[in-house]
Amino acid sequence: MTAQTPVSSSQPQPLSFPPSQFAKLAPRSYLHAHLSPPNGRRPSGRLPSESRKPTINTGSLTHCHGSAVVRSGDTAVVCAVRGEILNALDVVDYKPATKPEELHQRYGGTSARLDASDPDSRQSARMEDAEEMACLNLLVPNVELSTGCSPSFLPGAPPSTEAQSLSHRILTLLHTSQLLSMDDLRIWYHPPPSIPTETSPPLPEAPLSEPTSMSLDVPNEPTSEDTEDNALDPEIKAFWTLHITLLVLSLSGPLFPTLWGVLIAALHNTRLPKAWWDVDAQSVFCSPLISDSKPLALNGLPIAANFGVFNAEKDGAGLMSSIQEGDAGKQRKWILADPD
User: Fold this and answer.
1) What's the DSSP call for residue 213?
2) Which of 12, 77, 216, 293 has its CA 20 to 30 Å from the CA of residue 3?
3) What is the pLDDT of residues 168-181, one digit of tens each?
């Protein structure tokens, strides 16, 4: 008998990739596989309508008037707010004004401040404040991306176009949202009231031989009504200019919602020192006591959010070929909050 040698039949094994490598090779197919039932979640485990949960820390910096650090996913941003004094005389074409209607007429306001209990009056006052801030350039935001936060932004590089665009976008949103009030940024000088002095008439001369009794007229003490009538109008001597620095430490995913969130947190943490005008020194002085500082009165709490639409029907041929003919009735479009 002749021995028969066994013949080994080798079958090709299917290729398999780990999830991390599959996500890099075909990210859209990878996302569609997770969003499709029965999973219904993104690769990060979040639902389509679920955003990242931010971590907020305030008061992290000591050499500024307000600060905050916000981390959302792998994106981390630190914000510092520092107030600097702008002398009113350093403003071009500045003319002292004391009445609110004069202030808003000069800076393009449409009406004077009315009763604060009227909603239309409050809205008009906020619009006038935003116009005055934009005219005086009292808000100066600056976004720094050249920190090595991602391979696209090398440390030490000049400001990129994206950083300048984000800075301008934040400045525009600060004005349009009417978040800040000019009452927190004006430094007033209230001069003491001028009290008129009353002089008594000269005493009549009487002969020495005839003794007379004389009564001296003592001037009356000034009353509160006299003080109010002779009170001088207050003047605006300076303004607070807020320099807002946003430093991106790590970048992964949408950036603007994190930038705006850390800005709001830093403004809530900001306390400006008590400032007054000294007549003798002709300068503005600030109190070093923290108890004398005053927080900013913010109007509302505006937020920023990103949304994206994932359409499986408009993807590449690789994804369309993976969709079976029997899946024609299944969902092909999703609205994703805070896209990855």
Assistant:
1) -
2) 12
3) 999 999 999 999 99
